[in-house]
Design brief:
The protein is mainly β. It is built from 1 helix and 34 strands. The N and C termini lie close together (11 Å). The longest helix is centred in the middle third of the chain and has 4 residues, at 146-149.
């Protein structure tokens, strides 16, 4: 006889298991996030490029066919997706169903950053910046004088045809969709810049233990430092929404400002990893990519919860059905689904989250 919903759930815990992984482990490093309305893309360092069409409730792999699961960067233009890897650029023209290499003219296949608009694609590498005017079919090196100040271009952000590049030698600006570049120096140092963000007419650049802010397309900048007690770790990522500015640190988690960086507060409740590799923010939701998984906030960073990737179950060791509710026992705890394909953790009270067996009485 099938147990009712009021049945007592019994969890058997173990120390280790050798069962094969099912689904995508939720602890994969997430280095890139793109948020567009309800669609989210994340680039992971060991599980490929993942896409969600329901703000992270469910996920699908959309880089099958790319010969590496380490996605360093990506850009999306309608149904065309570009991914950057340690093996070069791969392009899909059918929304990730099939992939082909797009490396003609690239002299460095380590692709740290990508940006795309219309037929133009810009790639950041260890050898500088490459540009394509034919959707990645061919590339030309457009680093120019940038090579004097910087070698590695890691991130891009844009306002129309004006593109900004974050490099190991500062922030560079292009007024012509990446054809030519100049270093920005007024109020901002020529130093390592792994993260750029923008909202409205304001651009943000990671800078030491804080953020540099410009409201005039990078002509001048103002430094917005964190409080002194949060000055040990540098800033790796930045994102902004209408009323909130998020800064991802290398050891504290997320700092949040509601006044464009004039004041900051630590907002890391719920985060289990404090290395913030990537951030994305919308009107009602924010995502944080860490060295050990993806996290989501629905209250402007006041609290965070781990996002379950794929099936979200990692190494599944047991299933139990109670009516229309399904429980899964995994190495990462017990998860519950009520038939809506979303898995939620139910681990309160468990001192050991390695669930080997499930039973109900």
């Amino acid at each position: 006889m099938r147990p009712s919903h009021s049945s007592l759930l019994i969890v058997s815990l173990c120390v280790s298991t050798q069962l094969a992984s099912q689904g995508i482990p939720s602890s994969v490093p997430v280095g890139n996030i793109l948020l567009r309305d309800s669609i989210v893309y994340i680039g992971t360092y060991s599980a490929g490029l993942l896409r969600s069409t329901d703000l992270g409730a469910t996920w699908s792999l959309c880089s099958e066919g790319v010969p590496t699961s380490s996605i360093w960067s990506f850009a999306v233009k309608d149904s065309i997706i570009f991914v950057g890897t340690e093996q070069g650029v791969y392009r899909s023209t059918d929304n990730g169903q099939s992939w082909n290499p797009s490396n003609a003219g690239l002299t460095d296949l380590n692709i740290y950053g990508l940006w795309a608009k219309d037929s133009i694609v810009v790639a950041g590498t260890w050898a500088g910046i490459f540009r394509s005017t034919d959707r990645g079919a061919t590339w030309n090196n457009v680093t120019g004088e940038m090579s004097v100040q910087a070698r590695q271009a890691m991130t891009f952000v844009s306002f129309g045809d004006t593109v900004f590049a974050g490099t190991d030698g500062g922030v560079f600006r292009s007024f012509d969709c990446g054809a030519t570049w100049s270093l920005l120096t007024s109020g901002i140092s020529a130093s390592w810049t792994p993260g750029l963000g923008a909202w409205g007419s304001v651009i943000y650049a990671t800078r030491g233990a804080g953020i540099a802010v410009s409201s005039n397309l990078g002509t001048t900048w103002q430094q917005k430092d964190f409080p002194s007690e949060y000055s040990t770790y540098g800033t790796y990522s930045v994102a902004a929404s209408a009323n909130h500015l998020f800064a991802g640190t290398g050891g504290y988690g997320v700092m949040v400002s509601t006044d464009t960086g004039a004041t900051w507060s630590l907002s890391s409740n719920g985060l289990t990893n404090m290395m913030m590799l990537a951030l994305a923010a919308g009107d009602s939701v924010a995502f944080a990519g860490t060295n050990a998984g993806l996290f989501r906030s629905d209250d402007n960073g006041a609290s965070w919860s781990r996002v379950i990737l794929g099936t979200g179950l990692g190494k599944v060791q047991a299933f139990l059905s109670l009516g229309s509710t399904i429980y899964a026992g995994t190495e990462g705890g017990v998860f519950r689904s009520s038939g809506d394909s979303a898995w939620l953790p139910v681990n309160d009270g468990l001192s050991n989250t390695d669930a080997e067996a499930l039973a109900a009485i």
